Amino acid sequence: MKSLRISTLITCLAAAQACAAGMGPQPAPPDAETFTLGEFRITSLRDSVNVVPNDGSVFGADVAPKAVAEVLREAGQKTEAIELSVDALLVRRGSEAIVIDTGLGPAIPGSLAGSLSQAGVTPDEVTTVLITHVHSDHIGGLVSPDKQSAFKHAAVKISEPDWKWLQQQPDMAELTGVIGPQVKTFTPGEDVATGIKSVRIPGHTPGHVGYMISSKGETLLDVGDTFHSAIVSLAKPDWAMGYDSDLAVGRTSRREVLTQLATDHQLIFAPHFPYPGVGWIVSRDDHFEWSPKK
Ligand SMILES: [Zn+2]
Prior knowledge:
alpha+beta, Metallo-beta-lactamase, Chain A, eight-stranded mixed β-sheet, about 20% helix, binds zinc ion
């Protein structure tokens, strides 16, 4: 098992030269794209971009960067890095405003607050925040630039195993101190809001979950970090992913979930796929492809 790296994504902040070279977390302009799902209004919220070097440590952690480069070349992409969007989701019904994941937060800074504003929602109007897992690109935005809770009136729901793990990370003590009073834990698989059920998808973190949003026969699954790149993760789902806390379990989850999503023609939101990250997984021979919702 690879060691759990909670701050992987912000390491480039400490190594300014890597950031200057355009690697690591990068700002992105705010954006908000809304569609309807039964009684819900769903909005993709843009936060930032993470440029992951093709150095064998993250994508294809068990193969050579040369093999990853070949997949990227075939897709017409640059071969020295994999660009990931970092996005979040807003789910509204009546006066309820639920945010799923919160981007990188003030460190970059992420554009989540600006994207929420474009959607017509203030942070104080958010009623619930649901976290897929406690990596910094999903929980960073829970804290505002002045080190206060960014969503003062919201219940912050985190799976029990991930909350326990987060509290053990010394470098996250400030964040857990700020959000602690608002946190409500749940067991993966439980309902977390009316029409929203957490889905246990193991391997990425101790309590990683997706969220199945259902209304009037329509469904959308926020897959969290079950897979990361719309190119590499789908072309080579069995390659190890360095961000997974358990590489073997993450690999198994990825193929199982991708197979199920393709079979069910399940609409998904993938926070690291190209913005707005909404569409379908399609099965092709031994691998998969991304079909974005137009
Ligand atoms: Zn992530």
